[in-house]
Amino acid sequence: MASKLQTHPEESLDPQNWEELRALGHQMLDDMLDQMQSFDDSPVWKPLLDEAKAAMKQPLPLTGQGEAQTYEEFKQHVLPNPMGNGHPRFWGWVMGNGTAYGMLADMLASGLNPNMGGGDTISNYVEDQVIDWCKQMFGLPKDYSGLLVSGGSMANLVGLTVARNVMAGYDLRKEGVAIGDKPMVMYASSQTHSSNPKAVELLGLGTDALRVIPVDNQYSMDIRALEAAIAEDKANGLHPVCVVGNAATTNTATFDDLSALADICQQEGLWFHVDGAFGALVAISDELKPIVAGMEHADSLAFDLHKWGYLPFEVAGVLVRDLDELAATFASTPDYLTHMPRGLASGKSAWYGELGVQLTRGFRALKVWMSFKAHGIDKLARLIEQNVAQARYLKSLVEAHPQLEMTAPVPLNIVCFRYIADGLDDETLSKLNKELLMRLHESGVALPSYTTLNDNFSLRASITNHRSRYTDFDILVDKVVELGDEILKNEEIPS
Ligand SMILES: Cc1ncc(COP(=O)(O)O)c(C=O)c1O
After folding, report:
1. Taking 80 as the threshold, does the pLDDT of residue 181 lie above it?
2. What is the pLDDT of residues 407-433, one digit of tens each?
3. pLDDT value of position 179
4. Are 88 and 39 in contact (CB under 8 A)?
5. 159 lines ligand 1 (CB under 6 A)
6. Domains in the chain with CATH codes
7. CA distance 205 to 131
8. Distance from C-alpha of 391 to C-alpha of 440, rounded to nearest angstrom
9. What pTM, to 2 d.p., does this model score?
10. Is the pLDDT of residue 1 over 60?
11. Residue 293 burial by Cβ neighbours in a 10 Å radius (0-12, 13-18, 19+)
12. Does the beta carbon of 119 sit less than 6 angstroms from any atom of ligand 1?
């Protein structure tokens, strides 16, 4: 009998007609796979039409228009305007392509929709398995602990938070940052990714507490300068707590001397955090592994799987030497979250909601587990080696061309270079290359990003792309030279 309190027909968000939604879902899958299969035939990126932007300025939809009509709008405005990072000639910033299989796994994860905070449910054991595999991949001992997070920025934040709390020497969670009688300081090179200073800010230490150590001419941290900075801070009554080592840097993919940093941290009693957002992944390649020697001494390691693991956003991870220290930093167990001896709130898997910032967490572990099993780590290693070989190939093309010049060494997978012309000074060349970069993006032919090295604006190809082929780099070089020549010939260098 219907409740007397019931005033409206009962509703849910399930489809009114499952068969129609099933057909629509199959169509969505076909459309998306079609697009992935044909990235090569489309521009890497194209400027957005005003119509598409206007479609995102509509009133709040109080009444639903239905799934099919909404999908039509997606097909009209969103699907034809991808960012471009799936394309074989996208080499901007440090981004992965994603994979078709990872996308399917994400759909399964959303379909199952477990809350990955903790409990005796298989999804938590999937993450346990992935974390164990990551330890093996990065050569870390079994007793490290960790969790998957949204990206490298969050992984650095988690690692540095544990560092701060463990090294504070008092109950920082209770007493707060200000109570320390000796202000804490951390160290990182001038090439460290901006997420590290951001983390130091969020930790309440202030960016002045992050000592910026200069780099040598290869962009690697100057070890002597680090030692001097630690000694000076100690002499001035400060409390050095942590060194951030780069594996590798965002600008040029340079590795700090991780073994030397680990030794200094051990001698000085400092926490050693490694930002291995993309560089940590080279540990799975026998050929490249020697570059990350010393990483195994990290007290905490941040790594991304949506960069050189090629998985769809968002998935990264952080591993920390001691589970108790990780839990002591983040666990918060009110009455409604205590563990039970039996039932869903029991279980031997980690309670990930107690090991990081988020309580409710998505099932990002599934795409990692399925992709690692489906493709195998050896294939991942081969793809990473392929990208490094492609970077060397691009370097050789640049070096062979009279109109191009390298602007940084290529220790791994990032190639920084610029168009040059006789008689132009560095300032004018920077303006020319900036204009060239924007025309290159607008051309849709290839999409490197950019950086400034020794005050010179540079094009920067960061190759974490499993779809790139050697011929794609020939196309890039030809287009860069064509555009540079065009700007020169038409005297279009912006003033
Ligand atoms: C070295 C390094 N660390 C951290 C990050 C931040 O990672 P995410 O963008 O996944 O937050 C990046 C991003 O490129 C990076 O290159």
Report:
1. no
2. 999 999 999 999 999 999 999 999 999
3. 66
4. yes
5. no
6. 19-58+68-98+381-495 (3.90.1150.170), 114-375 (3.40.640.10)
7. 30
8. 19
9. 0.97
10. no
11. middle
12. no
The better pLDDT of the pair 40, 444 is held by 444
| Cα 153 to averaged position of ligand 1 atoms, centre (Å) | 6
449 CB near ligand 1 (under 6 Å): no
Higher-confidence residue: 70 or 3?
70
Query: Of the candidates 414, 133, 394, which has an alpha carbon nearest to the alpha carbon of residue 251?
Result: 414
Return the pLDDT at 481: 98
C-beta of 413 in contact with ligand 1 (< 6 A): no
Contact predicate 436/429, CB 8 Å: no
Question: CA 466, CA 453: separation in Å to the nearest integer?
Answer: 27
pLDDT(233) > 80 = yes
Sequence letter at residue 439:
R
Q: Is 26 helix (H, G, I), strand (E, B) or coil?
A: helix
CB 116 within 8 A of CB 352: yes
Q: Looking at this protein, which amino acid is placed at residue 136?
A: Q
Using the 8-state DSSP alphabet, how is residue 58 labeled?
P
Please tell me the distance from the alpha carbon of residue 303 to that of residue 151, in angstroms, as a whole number.
8
